Amino acid sequence: MDLRNNDTLFALMDDMYKWRVRSVERINYASTLWIERTRILHANPLTNNFDPADDVLNIHPAYLSGPGGGDAWVRLPLAAFPKKPLLDLHIEVAEKPVFRIPRRISDDASARYLARRVKKLIEELKSAGLGDIGSYERLQEVIQNEKLLAFLAGMCKFQTGVPYQVQDGDLRDYVEEKSVQEHWTGKLNEEWGEQFFDCSVVDNAALNPLLTLQWINKISWDGEAEPFRINSPDADVPAMLNAVMTLLKELRHCQSVENEKVRAAARKTMGLYKFLGRFWVALADCKLDLREPFIATISEMRTTDDIKLSQDTNAAGLWRQAKSALLMRDENLGPVVTFKDAKANEVSIRIADPNVEMSRNGGHFVTVLNDHGNDVTVHLEEIDQKELIFIYSAEQQRDRVVNVGFILHPTASIRVINWVVLGIVLFTTFAIVAGWRIFVRKLNAPHVALLLTPSTFATSLLLVRDASALSRELTKRIRFLTAGILSFLWFLAIAYYVFNQISLGIE
Predict the structure, then answer these.
(1) How far is CA 196 from CA 209, 370, 461, in A?
(2) DSSP per residue over 11-31, as a string?
(3) Among candidates 57, 67, 53, which has minimal Cα distance to 9?
(4) Closest of 455, 452, 442, 457 to residue 497, by C-alpha
(5) Spatial distance between the Cα atoms of 104 and 226, rounded to a whole number of angstroms
(6) What are the beta bridge partners of residue 393?
(7) Span 307-342, pLDDT tens digits
(8) Residue 287: φ, ψ to 5°
């Protein structure tokens, strides 16, 4: 039996709680270049989770009870990923390797699903007797707008960076023009009534609709009429964004009506819009026994953009850089994880590098923030230690996406060694500069050897020490500082010698 159709797929996506029992995500930080992530989904039998009256699976009972019955091909939504490249993706379902279907198909399905959610909201409005309000009519009109449908498709297809196949010089210049970004950020937020849009961000097409432009012109839906294209940004972009704003304002309005089903449908649709602007959904075709539970395992290596020390050049940023350099820690670290795609979600983060550990901040090793910047740690069950973070929640009202934050620094022994060597070099600097000027007035060769040899030896051992990638990233600035001061000391010693400030004899 083949159930690889959009009706079955959308039914599975409508309420993942019906079949996803538990989602377990394991994140290992082992390098500054990549992290290892493994997600394990525990699923109930698919036939146990749908009302037969809905006829979603369209399976005759005799098929399930017959010999070999229950086996079917199903297209499963398995995981959501940020819109950036993946490395070494491997998927197993029911202990069998499977392959994800192409992004073109999965992104098209996501766009259609988002449009379907809007149509279901329209149905909820009608069934609640609200078919005569303006929102009902405006939603019906806007969901048939080709410009909006093109935008939704472009938003789902968007990924960070601009691959060669979608490069469009004119549109790229338009999107990257600072005055254009400022214009649309101000205009959209003014129409929205609060700060929501930011057309300068590069990884979220829900907040920056301009990111979809280069992808819209590459949409090709098989078997359908030619989709909307952007020929003139000045003419086409305002019309498209006007349709987007109409949709979002009506979704916001529907969240305030008296009918609970309408409010819930509007909240779910708005949440889906925000989610698909940042993530794409991986689909895989699997052959399953619909009567049996199964486990799906998705493993990948993901590039890390968060293990980076502060690069701000303002006063506060420079202070953070100095503090991070001396304390050898990163204060802006942490992955973004999906945390509401099963009845229960748990995330464990391990530091695989024995030279690095987490630092306590305010009594805890971890903070968990939602997209609004609110700390939701108190609503979670958690374990936080120097090398392990574990968070878990089965609350119905938990956030769909959370940002896990923590501070990394080298182990105490590495920090102490770096501080001791830096201290030796600094005291040597004082001895050569201040001591020569105040006390000795003239150095001789034994003085120079006595002062420079220990510093040079200790610094050389520190700089050539075989450190791990994470440890090197966290200590690189203090090592550069130590090496710079040592270079300055040798420059002074050579200068003193050249200008006859060092005696070769012993006085």
Answers:
(1) 12, 15, 51
(2) HHHH-GGGTEEEEEEEEEE--
(3) 57
(4) 442
(5) 16
(6) 345
(7) 444 455 566 656 666 767 777 777 556 788 888 889
(8) -100, 115
Q: What is the pLDDT of residues 26-57, one digit of tens each?
A: 999 877 778 899 999 999 988 865 555 455 55
Residues in contact with 295: Cβ distance below 8 Å, sequence separation at least 6, in sequence order = 40, 41, 42, 43, 93, 94, 95
Q: Give the integer Cα–Cα distance in Å for 232 and 366.
A: 48
Residue among 256, 90, 240 at smallest CA distance from 174: 240
Distance from C-alpha of 348 to C-alpha of 335, rounded to nearest angstrom: 11
What DSSP letter does each residue of 360-391 carry, written as one string? Answer: -BTTBSEEEE-TTS-B-GGGSEEEE-SSEEEE
> Is pLDDT above 90 for 221?
no
Cα angle: 434, vertex 447, 432; to 5 degrees? 20
Least confident of 10-14, 282-286, 408-412: 408-412
Closest CA to 306 of 80, 82, 23, 26: 82
Cβ atoms of 181 and 200 within 8 Å: the answer is: yes
Nearest residue to 352 via CA among 33, 42, 36: 36
Mean pLDDT of the chain: 81
pLDDT of residue 505: 57
Model confidence pLDDT, tens digit, residues 181-209: 999 999 999 999 999 999 999 889 999 99
pLDDT at site 507: 47
Cβ contact 142:243 at 8 Å: yes
Q: Which helix (H) or strand (E) holds 348?
A: strand 344-351
